[in-house]
Amino acid sequence: MTLLPDSIEVFERGWLSSNNIVLHGRDEVAMIDSGYVTHAPQTLALLRHSLQGRPLARLFNTHLHSDHCGGNALLQAEYGCHTAIPASEADKVRAWDTEALSFRATGQQCPRFSFDATVAPGDSFILADMIWQALGAPGHDPHSLIFYCAAEGILVSADALWENGFGVIFPELEGASGFAEARATLELIAALEVAVVIPGHGRVFGDVKGALARAFSRLEYLSSEPARNAQNAVKVLLKFLLLERQRIVLADVPVLLADMPLLHQANRRFLRQEVPALAEWAVAQLVRAAAARIDGPYLLNQG
Ligand SMILES: [Zn+2]
């Protein structure tokens, strides 16, 4: 990984788990984002190898989607690490309100964890002996933070900017504003001096201008016809289930989709289809994209 200093290590994990970023400082080691719960033992094994006997002192979450904080509980049990979460999520985590957190709405799992501190936009802290600033990055998630190290030009962009796009604009599915916030977040990133981006998913990249151009264009495509964002969400949420389970009985897909309150909302607002028809459409889309295949009564994960 030539783009980053040796003190920063990124475990690129794919789509079920977010990337994990390990920051090795002289005095302590910190990690940003902990992946999905079903990958937590693997996250711990990767981290242990990287730590070489040192403890994990601190854990940060960019935001509290299940694929970014699902390993928190295991890492806390293992290391008792000081954990910092976005300030605007504190009450929900304290009460473990799975309705207000996104887990229930998306049909995803996340074991309960605690926190020791909160991070708000504008806060600064030292990780890997460098000064980082947290910036608010609403759009994909109203509470998401991104972390910027001005001295090194490194941006931890979470799901606000990937090399090709960004995460689903979730607030719009519930009738709240998200496109305008996502645009403002991209503009904020464009105004920073960024040499390297560590995204929430996918590889570390240096062509920030290219990524921003693709992201602005995709945002335009989605916001000009919001049903596209809803359709994308249906596909993404079904693919996530498939990544988690690897195999789903086809006949169960409508039941699983019907059990996601967020999809009900998106369907009611933008798609207006009967759930079985929506399920059939989503399955066909994943198969067409080679993200799944049908084998007898099963839908199998692929790719
Ligand atoms: Zn996310």
From TrEMBL:
It holds the Pfam family Lactamase_B. Residues 17-201 form the Metallo-beta-lactamase domain. InterPro entries: Metallo-B-lactamas, NDM-1-like, RibonucZ/Hydroxyglut_hydro. SUPFAM superfamilies: Metallo-hydrolase/oxidoreductase. PANTHER family: METALLO-BETA-LACTAMASE DOMAIN-CONTAINING. This is Glyoxylase, beta-lactamase superfamily II. It comes from Janthinobacterium psychrotolerans. The lineage of its organism: Bacteria, Pseudomonadati, Pseudomonadota, Betaproteobacteria, Burkholderiales.
